Amino acid sequence: QVQLVESGGGLVQPGGSLRLSCVASGFTFSDYAMTWFRQAPGKERELVASISSSGRSTTYATSVKGRFTISRDGAKNTVYLQMNSLKLEDTALYFCSAVRSETRYWGQGTQVTVSS
After folding, report:
1. 44 phi, psi to nearest 5 deg
2. Confidence tier at 22 by pLDDT (50, 70, 90)
3. pLDDT tens digit string along 30-74?
4. Beta bridge partners of 7
5. CA-to-CA dists, residue 4 to 24, 83, 85, 97, 104, angstroms
6. Which residues pair with 104 in a beta bridge?
7. What whole-number distance in Å separates Cα of residue 31 and Cα of residue 3?
8. Mean pLDDT, to the nearest integer, of 78-82?
9. First-last CA distance in the chain
10. Contact criterion met (CB below 8 Å) for 49 and 36
């Protein structure tokens, strides 16, 4: 059974940091690129960051470049999203996703709220 379980969300003040984790199971983690998406209320889902299956290539949304870092640990079947210098507009439900060719899996999400 495929599972992607996110954690690490919470309430943080502007300028603060959080690290999100997504633990994968039920598929060969090393074969899949991993992506973090987010969706704020009333807005479309947005790609935040992605990392290739090898971990050698990463991409970021312009809005988070320089503040967020995506990484993966094959030994733990986990992908991370380190989020620094958080802004009010980073408030959203954050999902991780695994993709290989036509196959995509989704997690349930973890809520990040940036508020003073």
Report:
1. -75, 155
2. very high
3. 999 999 999 998 999 999 999 999 999 999 999 999 999 999 999
4. 21
5. 5, 19, 26, 8, 11
6. 99
7. 15
8. 98
9. 40
10. yes
